[in-house]
């Protein structure tokens, strides 16, 4: 994690952490006792946004959204037996032409 993860220099690796600490320290110094509440509100908002994206947006992009939705509809019409799993498998792995994964 960090700016250049392959670097052996500890300061370069942890630069984002140092910058975040300095920004929060300056914000706390300037705002006084209101800063911890504001920081907690911003942090909680970012967590909620992350959870909403993880629950709603990512599954639609992986399973049926974007360019793979037409492929998913096509494969679900011609698949037999377990239509949902076969179509999803084909949509996620479009290069496999065989149904050997069943």
Overall SS class? mainly alpha
Q: What's the average pLDDT?
A: 75
Low-pLDDT ranges: none
How much of the sequence is in beta strands?
A: under 5%
The whole-angstrom Rg is: 23 Å
Query: Could you tell me the number of beta strands?
Result: 0
Distance between the termini: 38 Å
Largest sheet: none
Concise account of the structure shown:
This protein is 72% helix and 0% strand.
Give an account of the 3D structure.
The chain has 102 residues and is mostly helical. The chain has a domain at 1-32. The protein has five helices and no strands. Helix 2 (15-31) packs across helix 3 (34-64), helix 3 (34-64) crosses helix 4 and helix 4 packs antiparallel against helix 5. It starts with 9 loop residues before the first helix and ends in a 10-residue tail after the last helix.
Question: What are the salient characteristics of this protein?
Answer:
102 residues; mainly alpha
In terms of topology, how is this protein built?
Elements: H1 10-13, H2 15-31, H3 34-64, H4 68-78, H5 83-92
Helix pairs in contact: 2-3, 3-4, 4-5
